[in-house]
Protein backbone atom coordinates (compact mmCIF):
# COMPACT_ATOMS: atom_id res chain seq x y z
CA UNK A 1 0.00 0.00 0.00
CA UNK A 2 1.00 3.65 -0.35
CA UNK A 3 3.04 4.91 2.59
CA UNK A 4 1.62 7.72 4.69
CA UNK A 5 2.47 11.29 3.73
CA UNK A 6 0.84 14.13 5.70
CA UNK A 7 -1.00 17.05 4.18
CA UNK A 8 0.38 19.37 6.86
CA UNK A 9 3.15 19.22 9.47
CA UNK A 10 3.30 20.92 12.87
CA UNK A 11 6.67 21.03 14.63
CA UNK A 12 7.09 21.71 18.33
CA UNK A 13 9.81 24.34 18.84
CA UNK A 14 11.77 22.16 21.29
CA UNK A 15 11.80 19.29 18.80
CA UNK A 16 14.12 21.23 16.53
CA UNK A 17 16.90 20.61 19.06
CA UNK A 18 16.94 17.00 17.77
CA UNK A 19 18.44 15.73 14.54
CA UNK A 20 15.36 13.77 13.43
CA UNK A 21 13.13 16.84 13.61
CA UNK A 22 15.66 18.84 11.62
CA UNK A 23 15.81 16.12 8.95
CA UNK A 24 12.03 15.90 8.73
CA UNK A 25 11.70 19.67 8.55
CA UNK A 26 14.03 19.70 5.55
CA UNK A 27 12.26 16.72 3.93
CA UNK A 28 8.84 18.33 4.14
CA UNK A 29 10.08 21.72 3.03
CA UNK A 30 11.68 20.09 -0.01
CA UNK A 31 8.44 18.29 -0.90
CA UNK A 32 6.30 21.41 -0.43
CA UNK A 33 4.21 20.14 2.47
CA UNK A 34 3.05 23.09 4.63
CA UNK A 35 4.85 23.42 7.99
CA UNK A 36 3.78 25.41 11.05
CA UNK A 37 5.54 25.72 14.40
CA UNK A 38 3.83 25.17 17.75
CA UNK A 39 4.61 25.41 21.45
CA UNK A 40 3.31 21.97 22.50
CA UNK A 41 2.35 18.75 20.73
CA UNK A 42 -0.40 18.33 23.32
CA UNK A 43 -2.17 21.55 22.35
CA UNK A 44 -3.04 21.34 18.68
CA UNK A 45 -6.20 22.74 17.17
CA UNK A 46 -7.58 22.83 13.66
CA UNK A 47 -7.50 26.21 12.01
CA UNK A 48 -11.30 26.47 11.87
CA UNK A 49 -14.44 24.98 13.36
CA UNK A 50 -15.20 21.54 11.93
CA UNK A 51 -17.86 18.90 12.30
CA UNK A 52 -16.77 15.52 13.74
CA UNK A 53 -16.14 13.96 10.30
CA UNK A 54 -14.10 16.92 9.07
CA UNK A 55 -12.08 17.09 12.30
CA UNK A 56 -11.33 13.36 12.26
CA UNK A 57 -10.13 13.57 8.65
CA UNK A 58 -8.04 16.67 9.45
CA UNK A 59 -6.42 14.84 12.36
CA UNK A 60 -5.58 11.84 10.23
CA UNK A 61 -3.91 14.05 7.60
CA UNK A 62 -1.80 15.95 10.15
CA UNK A 63 1.66 15.04 11.43
CA UNK A 64 2.92 16.59 14.67
CA UNK A 65 6.62 16.34 15.54
CA UNK A 66 7.32 16.70 19.25
CA UNK A 67 9.33 15.75 22.31
CA UNK A 68 8.13 13.01 24.66
CA UNK A 69 8.40 14.53 28.11
CA UNK A 70 6.70 11.85 30.23
CA UNK A 71 9.25 9.06 30.57
CA UNK A 72 7.68 7.13 33.46
CA UNK A 73 6.12 4.25 31.55
CA UNK A 74 2.62 2.95 32.23
CA UNK A 75 1.63 -0.68 32.62
CA UNK A 76 0.45 -2.49 29.48
CA UNK A 77 -1.22 -5.70 30.66
CA UNK A 78 -1.93 -8.30 29.31
CA UNK A 79 0.36 -7.52 26.37
CA UNK A 80 3.54 -6.50 28.21
CA UNK A 81 4.93 -5.03 31.41
CA UNK A 82 5.23 -1.47 30.09
CA UNK A 83 4.13 0.79 27.26
CA UNK A 84 6.97 2.12 25.11
CA UNK A 85 5.62 5.22 23.38
CA UNK A 86 7.55 6.74 20.46
CA UNK A 87 4.46 7.91 18.58
CA UNK A 88 0.78 8.52 19.25
CA UNK A 89 -2.17 7.72 16.97
CA UNK A 90 -1.72 6.38 13.44
CA UNK A 91 -2.75 7.18 9.84
CA UNK A 92 -5.39 4.44 9.65
CA UNK A 93 -9.10 5.04 10.09
CA UNK A 94 -10.30 1.87 11.79
CA UNK A 95 -13.90 2.54 12.77
CA UNK A 96 -13.74 0.58 16.03
CA UNK A 97 -10.34 1.93 17.17
CA UNK A 98 -10.04 2.15 20.98
CA UNK A 99 -7.12 4.55 20.62
CA UNK A 100 -9.07 7.03 18.50
CA UNK A 101 -11.74 6.88 21.19
CA UNK A 102 -9.26 7.59 23.99
CA UNK A 103 -7.65 10.44 22.07
CA UNK A 104 -11.00 12.00 21.18
CA UNK A 105 -10.52 15.26 19.30
CA UNK A 106 -6.72 14.89 19.62
CA UNK A 107 -6.43 11.91 17.26
CA UNK A 108 -3.70 13.59 15.21
CA UNK A 109 -0.53 11.60 14.54
CA UNK A 110 2.42 12.50 16.78
CA UNK A 111 6.00 11.26 16.49
CA UNK A 112 8.58 11.87 19.21
CA UNK A 113 12.15 12.70 18.24
CA UNK A 114 13.97 12.32 21.59
CA UNK A 115 14.57 8.60 21.12
CA UNK A 116 17.82 8.48 23.11
CA UNK A 117 16.04 9.86 26.18
CA UNK A 118 13.20 7.37 25.75
CA UNK A 119 15.66 4.46 25.54
CA UNK A 120 17.46 5.66 28.67
CA UNK A 121 14.10 5.41 30.42
CA UNK A 122 13.74 1.87 29.05
CA UNK A 123 17.01 0.95 30.77
CA UNK A 124 15.76 2.34 34.07
CA UNK A 125 12.57 0.29 33.84
CA UNK A 126 14.55 -2.86 33.04
CA UNK A 127 16.61 -2.30 36.19
CA UNK A 128 13.39 -2.10 38.21
CA UNK A 129 12.79 -5.74 37.25
CA UNK A 130 15.77 -6.83 39.38
CA UNK A 131 16.89 -9.53 37.02
CA UNK A 132 13.49 -10.55 35.61
CA UNK A 133 12.71 -10.34 31.89
CA UNK A 134 10.83 -7.07 31.31
CA UNK A 135 8.67 -6.65 28.21
CA UNK A 136 7.78 -3.41 26.43
CA UNK A 137 4.87 -2.88 24.04
CA UNK A 138 5.77 -0.49 21.22
CA UNK A 139 2.25 -0.34 19.79
CA UNK A 140 0.07 0.57 22.76
CA UNK A 141 -0.57 4.10 21.51
CA UNK A 142 0.29 3.86 17.82
CA UNK A 143 1.44 1.67 14.96
CA UNK A 144 5.19 2.37 14.68
CA UNK A 145 5.49 0.45 11.39
CA UNK A 146 3.11 2.96 9.77
CA UNK A 147 5.62 5.80 10.27
CA UNK A 148 8.90 3.86 10.13
CA UNK A 149 9.63 5.24 6.64
CA UNK A 150 9.64 8.72 8.21
CA UNK A 151 11.34 8.09 11.55
CA UNK A 152 13.55 4.99 11.32
CA UNK A 153 12.93 4.77 15.07
CA UNK A 154 11.69 1.20 15.21
CA UNK A 155 14.87 -0.11 13.61
CA UNK A 156 16.93 1.69 16.26
CA UNK A 157 14.73 0.34 19.05
CA UNK A 158 15.06 -3.23 17.76
CA UNK A 159 18.85 -2.88 17.66
CA UNK A 160 18.79 -1.49 21.20
CA UNK A 161 16.73 -4.38 22.56
CA UNK A 162 18.95 -6.90 20.79
CA UNK A 163 21.66 -5.90 23.29
CA UNK A 164 19.45 -6.07 26.38
CA UNK A 165 19.77 -9.30 28.36
CA UNK A 166 16.62 -8.59 30.36
CA UNK A 167 14.58 -6.46 27.97
CA UNK A 168 12.17 -7.65 25.28
CA UNK A 169 10.23 -5.68 22.69
CA UNK A 170 6.77 -6.41 21.33
CA UNK A 171 5.33 -4.76 18.20
CA UNK A 172 1.84 -4.93 16.68
CA UNK A 173 1.01 -3.67 13.20
CA UNK A 174 -1.64 -3.54 10.51
CA UNK A 175 0.96 -2.28 8.03
CA UNK A 176 3.27 -4.16 5.69
CA UNK A 177 6.26 -1.88 5.08
CA UNK A 178 8.73 -4.04 7.02
CA UNK A 179 11.52 -4.42 4.44
CA UNK A 180 13.85 -2.00 6.23
CA UNK A 181 13.64 -4.18 9.36
CA UNK A 182 14.50 -7.56 7.85
CA UNK A 183 18.31 -7.45 7.98
CA UNK A 184 18.60 -6.20 11.56
CA UNK A 185 20.42 -8.39 14.08
CA UNK A 186 17.52 -8.61 16.50
CA UNK A 187 18.82 -11.48 18.69
CA UNK A 188 15.24 -12.85 18.95
CA UNK A 189 14.44 -10.07 21.44
CA UNK A 190 11.65 -8.47 19.37
CA UNK A 191 8.36 -10.24 18.73
CA UNK A 192 6.29 -8.96 15.82
CA UNK A 193 2.54 -9.59 15.90
CA UNK A 194 0.38 -8.81 12.92
CA UNK A 195 -3.17 -7.70 13.56
CA UNK A 196 -5.37 -9.83 11.31
CA UNK A 197 -9.07 -10.18 10.78
CA UNK A 198 -11.63 -11.63 8.41
CA UNK A 199 -12.00 -10.11 4.96
CA UNK A 200 -15.39 -8.72 6.01
CA UNK A 201 -13.95 -6.81 8.99
CA UNK A 202 -10.93 -5.46 7.10
CA UNK A 203 -13.03 -4.31 4.14
CA UNK A 204 -15.73 -2.62 6.19
CA UNK A 205 -13.89 -1.23 9.22
CA UNK A 206 -10.09 -1.03 8.72
CA UNK A 207 -9.70 1.86 6.31
CA UNK A 208 -6.24 2.96 5.06
CA UNK A 209 -4.51 -0.15 6.40
CA UNK A 210 -2.59 -2.80 4.48
CA UNK A 211 -4.71 -5.53 2.93
CA UNK A 212 -4.86 -9.00 4.43
CA UNK A 213 -2.71 -10.26 1.57
CA UNK A 214 -0.08 -7.57 2.26
CA UNK A 215 -0.05 -8.30 6.00
CA UNK A 216 0.41 -12.04 5.54
CA UNK A 217 3.19 -11.41 3.02
CA UNK A 218 4.90 -9.11 5.53
CA UNK A 219 4.43 -11.65 8.33
CA UNK A 220 6.08 -14.31 6.20
CA UNK A 221 9.03 -11.98 5.58
CA UNK A 222 9.35 -11.26 9.29
CA UNK A 223 9.31 -14.96 10.12
CA UNK A 224 11.89 -15.68 7.45
CA UNK A 225 14.08 -12.97 9.00
CA UNK A 226 14.06 -14.98 12.22
CA UNK A 227 11.89 -12.75 14.38
CA UNK A 228 9.55 -14.41 16.88
CA UNK A 229 6.12 -14.03 15.31
CA UNK A 230 2.58 -13.79 16.55
CA UNK A 231 -0.88 -12.68 15.49
CA UNK A 232 -3.59 -10.65 17.13
CA UNK A 233 -7.05 -11.56 15.91
CA UNK A 234 -8.98 -8.46 16.84
CA UNK A 235 -11.57 -7.30 17.15
CA UNK A 236 -13.28 -10.66 16.76
CA UNK A 237 -16.80 -10.06 15.47
CA UNK A 238 -19.92 -12.15 15.26
CA UNK A 239 -21.96 -11.67 12.06
CA UNK A 240 -23.58 -13.89 9.45
CA UNK A 241 -20.86 -16.19 8.15
CA UNK A 242 -18.21 -15.30 10.73
CA UNK A 243 -17.13 -18.92 11.29
CA UNK A 244 -16.46 -19.49 7.58
CA UNK A 245 -14.61 -16.18 7.25
CA UNK A 246 -12.28 -16.86 10.19
CA UNK A 247 -11.73 -20.38 8.89
CA UNK A 248 -10.71 -18.89 5.52
CA UNK A 249 -8.32 -16.52 7.31
CA UNK A 250 -6.57 -19.32 9.21
CA UNK A 251 -6.44 -21.51 6.11
CA UNK A 252 -4.72 -18.77 4.10
CA UNK A 253 -2.37 -17.94 6.94
CA UNK A 254 -1.21 -21.54 7.28
CA UNK A 255 -0.75 -21.90 3.52
CA UNK A 256 1.42 -18.80 3.19
CA UNK A 257 3.61 -18.72 6.28
CA UNK A 258 7.19 -19.84 5.81
CA UNK A 259 6.92 -22.11 8.84
CA UNK A 260 3.37 -22.60 10.13
CA UNK A 261 4.64 -25.32 12.48
CA UNK A 262 7.04 -22.99 14.31
CA UNK A 263 7.04 -23.63 18.03
CA UNK A 264 7.18 -19.94 18.95
CA UNK A 265 4.04 -18.77 17.15
CA UNK A 266 1.55 -16.94 19.38
CA UNK A 267 -2.05 -15.80 19.05
CA UNK A 268 -3.91 -13.15 21.04
CA UNK A 269 -7.70 -13.09 20.77
CA UNK A 270 -9.65 -9.92 21.51
CA UNK A 271 -13.38 -9.63 20.92
CA UNK A 272 -15.24 -6.54 19.72
CA UNK A 273 -16.01 -4.05 22.47
CA UNK A 274 -17.16 -0.48 22.82
CA UNK A 275 -18.16 2.10 25.40
CA UNK A 276 -20.86 4.76 25.42
CA UNK A 277 -18.20 7.34 24.55
CA UNK A 278 -16.74 5.30 21.70
CA UNK A 279 -20.23 4.54 20.36
CA UNK A 280 -20.96 8.27 20.18
CA UNK A 281 -17.63 9.05 18.52
CA UNK A 282 -17.97 6.22 15.99
CA UNK A 283 -21.50 7.21 15.02
CA UNK A 284 -20.44 10.86 14.62
CA UNK A 285 -17.37 10.04 12.53
CA UNK A 286 -18.88 7.16 10.57
CA UNK A 287 -22.64 7.81 10.39
CA UNK A 288 -23.13 4.88 8.00
CA UNK A 289 -21.09 2.40 10.00
CA UNK A 290 -22.01 -1.29 9.93
CA UNK A 291 -20.61 -1.81 13.42
CA UNK A 292 -23.13 -3.28 15.84
CA UNK A 293 -23.32 -0.89 18.77
CA UNK A 294 -26.68 -1.73 20.36
CA UNK A 295 -25.92 -1.74 24.10
CA UNK A 296 -29.07 -3.74 24.83
CA UNK A 297 -27.62 -6.73 22.95
CA UNK A 298 -24.22 -6.63 24.66
CA UNK A 299 -22.91 -7.45 28.12
CA UNK A 300 -21.78 -4.60 30.36
CA UNK A 301 -18.32 -5.66 31.52
CA UNK A 302 -17.59 -2.76 33.85
CA UNK A 303 -15.59 0.44 33.39
CA UNK A 304 -18.18 1.43 30.79
CA UNK A 305 -17.26 -1.36 28.37
CA UNK A 306 -19.73 -3.48 26.42
CA UNK A 307 -18.74 -6.90 25.05
CA UNK A 308 -20.56 -9.92 23.65
CA UNK A 309 -22.80 -11.75 26.15
CA UNK A 310 -21.05 -14.67 27.95
CA UNK A 311 -22.54 -17.39 25.74
CA UNK A 312 -21.48 -15.68 22.51
CA UNK A 313 -18.05 -14.82 23.94
CA UNK A 314 -17.51 -18.46 24.88
CA UNK A 315 -18.56 -19.54 21.38
CA UNK A 316 -15.99 -17.17 19.86
CA UNK A 317 -13.28 -18.38 22.23
CA UNK A 318 -13.97 -22.09 21.73
CA UNK A 319 -14.25 -21.88 17.94
CA UNK A 320 -11.11 -19.80 17.37
CA UNK A 321 -9.04 -21.68 19.93
CA UNK A 322 -10.05 -25.03 18.43
CA UNK A 323 -9.25 -23.97 14.86
CA UNK A 324 -5.93 -22.39 15.84
CA UNK A 325 -4.94 -25.60 17.61
CA UNK A 326 -5.88 -27.59 14.49
CA UNK A 327 -4.00 -25.37 12.04
CA UNK A 328 -1.07 -24.42 14.29
CA UNK A 329 -0.66 -27.20 16.87
CA UNK A 330 2.67 -25.81 18.11
CA UNK A 331 1.33 -22.30 18.65
CA UNK A 332 0.28 -20.77 21.96
CA UNK A 333 -2.99 -18.91 22.44
CA UNK A 334 -1.81 -16.37 24.99
CA UNK A 335 -5.19 -15.03 26.05
CA UNK A 336 -8.77 -14.32 25.06
CA UNK A 337 -10.38 -11.14 26.27
How would you characterize this protein structure?
This protein has 337 residues and is an alpha/beta fold. The chain has a single domain (8-336), classed as pyruvate-formate lyase- activating enzyme (Alpha-Beta Horseshoe), CATH 3.80.30.30. 35% of the residues lie in helices and 23% in strands. A hairpin with a 3-residue loop joins strand 4 and strand 5 (80-83). The longest helix is centred in the C-terminal third of the chain and has 18 residues, at 310-327. It is globular, with a radius of gyration of 20 Å. The two termini are 30 Å apart.
Helix proportion range: 25-40%
In DSSP terms, counting alpha (H) and pi (I) runs of 4 or more, how many helices? 11
| Uncertain spans | none
Radius of gyration (CA) equals 20 Å
Give me the CATH architecture, please.
Alpha-Beta Horseshoe
Major sheet description: 8 strands, mixed
Number of strands: 18
CATH topology term:
pyruvate-formate lyase- activating enzyme
The CATH class designation is Alpha Beta
Strand content: 15-25%
Query: What is the arithmetic mean of pLDDT?
Result: 96
How many domains? The number is 1
Strand order of the largest sheet: 4-5-9-10-11-13-14-18
Question: What is the N-to-C succession of helices and strands?
Answer: EHEHEEEEEHEHEHHEEHEHEHEEHEEHE
Overall, the morphology is globular
